[in-house]
Amino acid sequence: MTVFSLLGYTMCIRPIVLSDINEQYFDLLSQLTTVDIHVIDKERIQRYFDTLHDHNQIFVVEDMRSNLVIGTGKVLIEEKLIHNFGKAGHIEDIVIAKQYRGLGLGKAIVEYLTDYCLMTHNCYKCILNCSVENQRFYERCEYTLNGVEMSLYNRR
Q1: Which of 61, 99, 124, 150 is deepest in the core (most CB within 10 A)?
Q2: Domains identified in the chain, total number
Q3: b/e map 82-108, b = 16+ CB within 10 Å
């Protein structure tokens, strides 16, 4: 856990705990993408939580004054055959609650997750995908445009 002060707020970045995965957390995720909290039950949440580990981890940003989770991001660490069995870190699902944006928290969690990949797990690279609208934000976090992402979504 990393604790820091920012513009009068005391924040921490820490791994998610089961009790964080609640309606408020899904509301936060819905600021990133479509989330249907009505199809998710406690048993399914528990099964998902049980899959988290060192190489598949969700981190949250918590406002320690209010004990609210106000941001989140996920890291996947892929072990590869190339680069001498190197590891690549993937950062996903970065979101900060609207009322906390502009305080530098997005950059703080991206830097934290980047360090988690590169320093803690000695990944040879850390990558992420973003929308064109967010490209400048990630460039300010020292990421550079590299190639083209291709996607194929399940049409079912």
Answers
A1: 61
A2: 1
A3: eeeeebbbbbeebbbbeebeebebbeb
